[in-house]
Amino acid sequence: xxxxxxxxxxxxxxxxxxxxxxxxxxxxxxxxxxxxxxxxxxxxxxxxxxxxxxxxxxxxxxxxxxxxxxxxxxxxxxxxxxxxxxxxxxxxxxxxxxxxxxxxxxxxxxxxxxxxxxxxxxxxxxxxxxxxxxxxxxxxxxxxxxxxxxxxxxxxxxxxxxxxxxxxxxxxxxxxxxxxxxxxxx
Length: 186
Ligand SMILES: O=C(O)c1ccccc1NCC(=O)[C@H](O)[C@H](O)COP(=O)(O)O
Fold this sequence. Notes:
It catalyses: N-(5-phospho-beta-D-ribosyl)anthranilate = 1-(2-carboxyphenylamino)-1-deoxy-D-ribulose 5-phosphate. The chain is α/β, with parallel strands linked by helices.
């Protein structure tokens, strides 16, 4: 089965239209004000209305409180919540129960022990997104950094997972071949 594709950081109608035209599976909207790709709830509402069900919309949050996510959901039609901060398994489970949406948890990876943290999210998250660990003080994602994909060679898990971090046209095929990733995020 081909890998599913998520393009993150959509912030304009043009980018959304191009993503839909490319038959991408998921479009990500960043609700993290520090990101250069951040959208307000109003802009997100307009983008999800424009998408009108033609692509699944993922709302990305970093250590957000309940009110921030509730405000985003009130304004925009989000299909999935992606948590890209230091959210614990308990917090992930709370968000899933409270908002009734699938929750993806991003985990920063630099070593095999980082990968092992995924097991703690079984039963809480719907999918784990392995992304590159970013430098202290930098954004926790969207930095164009790749991690050592050999860490994922032969990775098997009952919990669905995906790969992100530094993927581009030149390397994404190799990344999928090396890791067997069922989903890739860019
Ligand atoms: O994209 C952002 O601005 C962002 C900010 C804060 C946390 C996560 C963010 N992006 C998350 C994603 O899902 C990216 O696709 C993923 O980190 C890979 O990014 P890149 O290496 O730039 O392709």
